[in-house]
């Protein structure tokens, strides 16, 4: 088998988000202020209960596993229990699995670590049970909770944890990691390809890496066209043109551009809303136009989330912009 064919086969067999997952806190990019504090906890052997809050793909789970590896080394799997609360979110899980792990005997370490992912999916009763469990086993167990919205975690749990808020990753951090992986895999990535991956990711490292792997399967060179095609992401200029047409009162043309994005490109209405929200201040709009657009985006997003038809709501958004202009 040729080297190129072997490389191609390797790309298909491995999941890059796992292959290039950081193994230590030092390797976690984009949150140096957080990882530095966590390293101090470990160095002083003074780890409190932790609450990681933030959007998906920014390093919460990776940081939790890296903490366990730093403390326990090769024995981290025996001393680290990972549960996904969105799948196992009842009170019985807290009472049974967590308590059994916390009670079980172990040697050589002062405490074990329980990592509860998506903890904001736990019911209130389960969170209350978890709070009591945290009190009962505080002498030999440390809890790391991960959630997207810390407001959904009851106050008694938040007050028992050191809270770390993970923000979406910066463009530079994502671009740097994309280039590192591309070099390691022998893939050529153009500058506009990197920019497209950063834009499509929207602060989510997993999206960027998955997009790179998917685009690399199509061609040896990853460019802007490949990224937008494989990630089903609208080009920023297409979104901008659609909005500008509506603001200029050209509703029919704006609606046609929207239909092309939804039908021809297969982009979900919710993703268009997200791109509008992320890009509105990058458009060449007056402040009044930008404020009006944000108001309509918020209304459409709420209605789509409540179950309304995506195309109808997006067309209504464009229509309201066109009517206001007239």
UniProtKB/TrEMBL annotation:
Heteromultimer composed of small subunits (RfcS) and large subunits (RfcL). GO terms for molecular function: ATP binding; ATP hydrolysis activity; DNA binding; DNA clamp loader activity. Keywords: ATP-binding, DNA replication, Nucleotide-binding. Residues 46-171 form the AAA+ ATPase domain. The gene is rfcS. This is Replication factor C small subunit. Part of the RFC clamp loader complex which loads the PCNA sliding clamp onto DNA. SMART domains: AAA.
